[in-house]
């Protein structure tokens, strides 16, 4: 769905407080030596990919609630992402999961992407579910399976995903390996890891030379005793053994409670091995809820590590950002826009930190000053700046308000009906 630009302008004109709010913030930041114009320009580069599987109503193992107007085809999914991008100007990328979203007609899919101003982000393979006509089962694993024939099937699937991605213009593959065991003694853990490394090496060899490979990790689920790639260290090990263009991907939900994720981010960047993120938030495990809704301070600290890390380590390539969330109750489009806003805020706040002054405070072991610097940035309300960014780039000052006021979900239900079910989890 595309919104007429004059509707956007009309709605923006009604946001009477915005100019005063923005002026107040801009003057305050300028007084502190922040180049606001530069910040607004720089913000354009923060484009966050939306996964094709996050636009419908997700579910839990207990069931799925209906959400009307879900996208039933890849084109409709692109239309939803196009809409989010039009309203926020922050979501110019789409990430596909195969076989949930096979691009049958590549030129057509590329043309649709072009129409909405979308580029193809990382491709995602799926060896965690058995598909209808699949010969061998992944019940006991895929890339790590004890049977070479199952491993080969999973390797071939990944190669096919690379081929689809190459045709579309994607430049990376993300592997999330569900493989693991649910019972002590079920699996020889180090042999499983060795087999996984060998399988990944074959997939890596199939990638075009300008592609990158991202390896996710996750401590549990769907298996409950062990996973083959449980943590960043194991992912880092595999990425290092695999090759220069293999990196670790950090999904914020894939950590045990209390894990210091920002430290992991800093360490990976320092070794040039941070490939990308899957953003979401959680209170307990892989809850996949709205980014920044539970631990906004952690999100800010992660972005601080990114901003500071990239300043100091040019060996790390540019980072791939994606939201990996599941929407069981909220309207996915509203929720994704909330997440984008939280990401924008964390990024801008991280940019407000004066890293030279912080470095001095750290050298002097001035602990209080260090925390004051962080708090000063974190407590700044930077929302007027993001609103101004959207306004200047043809988006909306208040995208959530517009979406609700205009009844966009109701409109989608009229067009698509209330029965469609989007592929994905
Ligand atoms: C696994 O929990 C995960 O985060 C992986 O990124 C998958 O590709 C994604 O969810 C969707 O299933
Ligand atoms: Mn993920």
> Biggest sheet, in brief?
8 strands, parallel
* Terminal-residue CA separation: 23 Å
Assembly annotation: single chain
Average pLDDT rating: 97
Q: Given the C-alpha coordinates, what overall shape results?
A: globular
Strand content: 5-15%
The arrangement of helices and strands along the chain is: HHHEHEHEHEEHEEHEHEHEHHHHHH
- The helical percent reads 40-55%
Compute the number of helices.
16
Structural class: alpha/beta
Unreliably modeled segments:
none
Radius of gyration, in angstroms, nearest whole number: 22 Å
DSSP, total strands: 10
Biggest sheet strand order reads 1-2-3-4-6-8-9-10
Bound molecules: alpha-D-psicofuranose, manganese (II) ion
Q: Which helices and strands appear, and what pairs or packs with what?
A:
Blueprint (H helix, E strand, L loop, with lengths): L4 H9 L4 H14 L4 H8 L5 E3 L22 H15 L4 E5 L8 H11 L2 E6 L23 H21 L3 E4 L4 E2 L7 H18 L5 E4 L10 E2 L4 H11 L3 E6 L9 H10 L3 E6 L16 H17 L7 E4 L8 H21 L2 H9 L3 H12 L4 H10 L6 H7 L2 H9 L9
Parallel strand pairs: 1-2, 2-3, 3-4, 4-6, 6-8, 8-9, 9-10
Antiparallel strand pairs: 5-7
Helix pairs in contact: 2-14, 3-14, 4-5, 4-11, 6-7, 9-10, 10-11, 12-13
Structure, briefly:
This protein is of the alpha/beta class.
Describe the protein's architecture and organization:
- By secondary structure, the protein is of the alpha/beta class.
- It has helices spanning 5-13, 18-31, 36-43, 74-88, 106-116, 148-168, 189-206, 232-242, 261-270, 296-312, 332-352, 355-363, 367-378, 383-392, 399-405, 408-416; strands spanning 49-51, 93-97, 119-124, 172-175, 180-181, 212-215, 226-227, 246-251, 274-279, 320-323.
- Helix 4 (74-88) packs across helix 11 (332-352) and helix 12 (355-363) runs antiparallel to helix 13.
- The longest helix has 21 residues, at 148-168.
- The radius of gyration is 22 Å and the shape is globular.
- The mean pLDDT is 97.
């Amino acid at each position: 769905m595309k919104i007429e630009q004059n509707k956007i302008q009309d709605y923006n004109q009604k946001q009477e407080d915005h100019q005063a709010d923005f002026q107040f913030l801009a003057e305050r930041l300028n007084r502190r030596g922040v180049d606001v114009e530069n910040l607004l320009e720089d913000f354009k580069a923060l484009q966050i990919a939306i996964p094709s599987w996050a636009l419908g109503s997700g579910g839990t193992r207990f069931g799925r609630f209906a959400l009307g107007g879900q996208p039933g085809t890849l084109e409709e999914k692109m239309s939803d992402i196009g809409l989010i991008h039009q309203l926020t100007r922050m979501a110019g990328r789409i990430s596909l999961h195969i076989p949930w979203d096979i691009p049958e007609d590549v030129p057509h899919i590329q043309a649709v992407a072009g129409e909405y101003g979308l580029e193809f982000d990382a491709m995602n393979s799926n060896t965690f579910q058995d598909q209808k006509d699949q010969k061998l089962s992944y019940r006991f694993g895929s890339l790590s399976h004890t049977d070479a024939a199952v491993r080969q099937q999973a390797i071939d699937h990944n190669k096919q995903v690379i081929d689809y991605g190459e045709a579309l213009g994607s430049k990376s593959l993300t592997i999330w390996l569900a493989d693991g065991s649910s019972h002590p003694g079920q699996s020889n853990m180090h042999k499983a890891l060795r087999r996984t490394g060998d399988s990944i090496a074959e997939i890596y060899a199939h990638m075009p030379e300008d592609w990158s490979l991202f390896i996710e990790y996750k401590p549990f689920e769907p298996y409950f005793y062990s996973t083959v790639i449980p943590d960043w260290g194991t992912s880092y090990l595999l990425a290092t053994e695999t090759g220069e263009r293999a990196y670790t991907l950090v999904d914020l939900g894939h950590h045990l409670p209390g894990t210091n994720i920002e430290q992991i981010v800093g360490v990976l960047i320092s070794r040039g091995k941070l490939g990308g993120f899957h953003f979401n938030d959680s209170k307990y495990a892989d809850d996949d809820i709205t980014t920044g809704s539970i631990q906004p301070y952690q999100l800010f600290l992660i972005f601080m590590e990114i901003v500071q890390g990239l300043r100091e380590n040019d060996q790390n390539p540019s980072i791939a950002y994606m939201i990996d969330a599941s929407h069981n109750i909220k309207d996915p489009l509203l929720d994704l826009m909330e997440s984008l806003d939280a990401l924008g805020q964390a990024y801008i706040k991280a940019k407000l930190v004066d890293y030279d002054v912080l470095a001095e405070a750290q050298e002097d072991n001035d602990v209080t000053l260090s925390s004051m610097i962080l708090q000063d940035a974190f407590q700044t309300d930077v929302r007027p700046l993001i609103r101004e960014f959207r306004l200047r780039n043809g988006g909306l000052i208040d995208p959530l308000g517009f979406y609700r006021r205009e009844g966009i979900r109701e409109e989608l239900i009229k067009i698509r009906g209330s029965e469609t079910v989007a592929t994905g989890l």
